[in-house]
Fold:
Amino acid sequence: MKGILPGTILGWLLAILLAGLLGCRPSATDDVKGSATDASAEEEPDAVIGVSVLTTTNPFFNELSGAIVEEAAKHHYKVIVHSGEMDPQKQDQQVDDFITKQVGAIVLCPCDSRAVGATIEKANRAGIPVFTADIASLAEQGEVVSHVATDNRDGGRAAARAVVEMLHGEGKIALLNHPRIESAILREEGFKEEIQKLNQQSGKAGIEIATILPGGGERKMSFDAAKDILQTYPDLDGLFCINDPSALGAAEALKPEIEAGRIRIVGFDAQPEARKAVKEGTLYATIVQYPERIGSTVADAVHQHLVGKEVAAEILIPVTIYGKAEADADPLLKKESGE
Structure:
């Protein structure tokens, strides 16, 4: 039998070593959250979209950014997702990073609707189109191609109708707002408008908005604000909170009053925890918005713009009210409880 030639052995060893090195190659960079397909992760994308959301502590924005990634993948785009964590300066730095990376488009959920103008303007000067999702810019400077969001003013009106139903048309309430954020401003405006209209129509004493305090759109600040409100207004009947984290924080602060049936709360978002709270009676109702639809719609708007098609300046997504009846019929809650 002939022996194996030394050159042949060396060739085999080189082939094995090369295969091992190729198998260890990363499929995508760490800062890229999504890509077109796993199979094409190493291919050059048709475009890269930079996304900076308000916060990742609110599930709403995780669902929104996830939908952007999913929709963008259909067009062979990669998506870089960052979170400003409610810090306008941090978000501004993230946009600087997007500009350095020469992304094809930027989607922002502004951390401050008025301060974001200078940030948008920088992207404009770099020739990068900017889109906003859920939260609009209220700044005079800076050009936004398209804004996609919940119809927040109508959502505020829906919340007002839920509060009127909750209190049978009469009672004293407080409002926890977030005046730095455009979406929250619109909800508050819509709520006040509808309360005023319904009071005029009812012929009763109506709903009195006793006080308005900032809840920051987050639990801790809203917990503290609700405690303060109750001390000043011990005869309070209810609250409207501009998002679910705020509502859940207030509900925790007012747990004894809620369990005694003295105070009820309406939230906004219909996050899973809030839906469960509605079913359990901790919240009276929450307003449903659809982050996946916002995310997929803004990603499609980016695509349409990049291929040269006209895009609407504003696209609004309707809301619905989620009360006890909706919670009792919710298939996800039924599955969770084993019904």
User: Anything to note?
Assistant: The chain has two domains: 47-144, 152-289+322-337.
